[in-house]
């Protein structure tokens, strides 16, 4: 993780706590862990087929982040879309998996209309907004995975 990102992670989570918004208050411990882990990967390089901090593709990032929270998730956007339950865009909560572009891209929703994703070759893991034109126009849906028992 880039040295400055520790502060970004802390400020993001503090912002959720202060705002008291439904997306933050409804997040459980697993969801908080998912968001924290996803944010720590910001700046990691994009690597096709990658599923570790050395490099991620989009579904590899989701697989890794959920794995760190104790959940086994397959590598592959289409396989991930079959998991959990469908969630409307209006009902998103931190930790939900968001899908785009005819199931060719995915990321992890972190709240406040933002998500973390591994973008494309030559780029890095980053935070983007769901209302950016590319993501808004290519929205497929979202899935919420069941909580794990510790």
Quick structural overview:
The chain has 150 residues and is of the alpha+beta class. It has helices spanning 5-19, 22-25, 29-40, 58-68, 77-81, 133-137; strands at residues 51-52, 55-56, 85-87, 97-100, 105-111, 114-118, 125-129, 139-144.
Structure description:
With 150 residues, this protein is of the alpha+beta class. It has one domain: Alpha-Beta Complex (endopeptidase fold (from Nostoc punctiforme)), CATH 3.90.1720.10. It is 35% helix and 23% strand. It contains 6 helices and 8 strands. The strands form 2 sheets. The protein has a 6-stranded antiparallel β-sheet. Strands 1-2 form a two-stranded antiparallel sheet. Strand 5 and strand 6 form a beta hairpin. Helix 1 packs antiparallel against helix 3 and helix 3 packs across helix 4. The longest helix is centred in the first third of the chain and has 15 residues. It is globular, with a radius of gyration of 14 Å.
